[in-house]
């Protein structure tokens, strides 16, 4: 069963917490991964790989650069999840 | 600021070792003659020919927050902790620039490792084979590159005068400190954080060194396995950890009222050009480094009160070092208190020069030479005054000099000299 927007946000928050140590409650739709959440380009790769596994979705490298905010990622996963 | 031949002093020390999580606890354990060597109880060690090692006393993961720690090889974690301790011990209260007593452009970082991020390399290869391409960490390269500890210390302290990593196996840590002394002396920097680090207690290095017949296989007696200068010594014991010091021009240290542990007089260097792993047995190669030190710095054997020997507990190496000291310093060796602290810490490879420089500097500051443990019967060919049993007082009056010897596979010989204040 596909995850809801709320479930995806919750999952991403856990992933960002694990990788960058940001409290889950600070991982909000309008937050920028690099500017707000201390996720640099290398850590972003980890976030993507963890999200792919968790939500059964493929995020090609070319699409990763468009995922600037948490909201971008949630929307992408909603649309592409298996 | 481009003055040359400036006086260089040591204003801070830091360490994380098998004996303690910082320099004071490591020093206290050394004076007490405690061994950091343990039986490895990990499953992977069960079938290895060598199952003893000197693991770190305080796991760095208990100090460095996990999001940062997971991006650092274990060797870089050790180096960061030792460097931060040395930095605070030198009296700096924040990163360079934020602490206005030090300009970032005048601060350097020179941190060496003998092997680099070998555990990261091997662990990530396991990930690749077992879990596939996607699971290999994107942090792998910046974690395993040998300059990673220097780079991370540079970033952490905001050191912009240069970050360097000389690599010369077990002489690496000492070479880093020698390089740092020259950076200050030549005017490139006013302050340099320098040291060595190593983290290679992992099945492959343990087996590889074991198969070279370089390591002690005294699995039944971990505490007694590292026994430099003893007749029954049969190889080194692998250790892990890091030691770092803050080096500073004397003017800079005086201007900010810093406490000075010792003067860093300089270094002597040579290469054996003999064999890729065996030391030149007559001691000529090491002797050339000592002679080079004498010529570079003008020190005399009469001033030298203490030698922190390289002495790894190998049959050949320990004697070559003593022969070299005799060759260069003659009868003056009789009044040098020779300590082999690897009897307690094990051999930290590229970290050894860092930790043993911390020990040498503290020996001068406290005027105490740590003991060499596990000497049941001193090798009669080790013709020197080896400190056995308990720590020994060094001359209480007047300036004294301590030497820290470090030699590496490849025939690298580095000798550092420090003078009491």
From TrEMBL, chain A:
PROSITE patterns documented for this protein: CARRIER
UniProt-listed SUPFAM superfamilies: ACP-like (SSF47336)
Swiss-Prot/TrEMBL GO biological process terms: lipid A biosynthetic process
A cellular component term, taken from the record's GO annotations: membrane
PTM field: 4'-phosphopantetheine is transferred from CoA to a specific serine of apo-ACP by acpS. 4'-phosphopantetheine is transferred from CoA to a specific serine of apo-ACP by AcpS. This modification is essential for activity because fatty acids are bound in thioester linkage to the sulfhydryl of the prosthetic group.
Record's signal peptide: none
Matches recorded under Gene3D superfamilies: ACP-like
Residue numbers bearing the O-(pantetheine 4'-phosphoryl)serine modification: 41
Annotated family: Belongs to the acyl carrier protein (ACP) family.
Name assigned to this protein: Acyl carrier protein
Naturally occurring in which organism (per UniProt): Streptomyces violaceusniger
TrEMBL record, chain B:
InterPro entries, per database record: 3-oxoacyl-ACP_synth-2, Beta-ketoacyl_synthase, Ketoacyl_synth_C, Ketoacyl_synth_N, PKS_Beta-ketoAc_synthase_dom, Thiolase-like
GO cellular component: cytosol
Protein origin, superkingdom: Bacteria
Domain named Ketosynthase family 3 (KS3): residues: 5-420
UniProt xrefs under SMART domains: PKS_KS
Reaction(s) catalysed by this chain's protein: a fatty acyl-[ACP] + malonyl-[ACP] + H(+) = a 3-oxoacyl-[ACP] + holo-[ACP] + CO2; (9Z)-hexadecenoyl-[ACP] + malonyl-[ACP] + H(+) = 3-oxo-(11Z)-octadecenoyl-[ACP] + holo-[ACP] + CO2
Gene Ontology molecular functions: 3-oxoacyl-[acyl-carrier-protein] synthase activity
Active-site residues, record numbering mapped to chain: 170 (for beta-ketoacyl synthase activity)
Keywords on record: Acyltransferase, Fatty acid biosynthesis, Fatty acid metabolism, Lipid biosynthesis, Lipid metabolism, Transferase
GO BP, sorted A to Z: fatty acid biosynthetic process
SUPFAM superfamilies in the cross-refs: Thiolase-like (SSF53901)
UniProt-listed Enzyme Commission number(s): 2.3.1.179
A Pfam family it matches: ketoacyl-synt
Pathway connected to this protein: Lipid metabolism; fatty acid biosynthesis
UniProt cross-references to PANTHER family, sorted A to Z: 3-OXOACYL-[ACYL-CARRIER-PROTEIN] SYNTHASE, MITOCHONDRIAL, POLYKETIDE SYNTHASE-RELATED
Family the entry assigns: Belongs to the thiolase-like superfamily. Beta-ketoacyl-ACP synthases family.
Function of the protein: Involved in the type II fatty acid elongation cycle. Catalyzes the elongation of a wide range of acyl-ACP by the addition of two carbons from malonyl-ACP to an acyl acceptor. Can efficiently catalyze the conversion of palmitoleoyl-ACP (cis-hexadec-9-enoyl-ACP) to cis-vaccenoyl-ACP (cis-octadec-11-enoyl-ACP), an essential step in the thermal regulation of fatty acid composition.
Protein name: 3-oxoacyl-[acyl-carrier-protein] synthase 2
Species for this entry: Streptomyces violaceusniger
Source organism phylogeny: Bacteria, Bacillati, Actinomycetota, Actinomycetes, Kitasatosporales
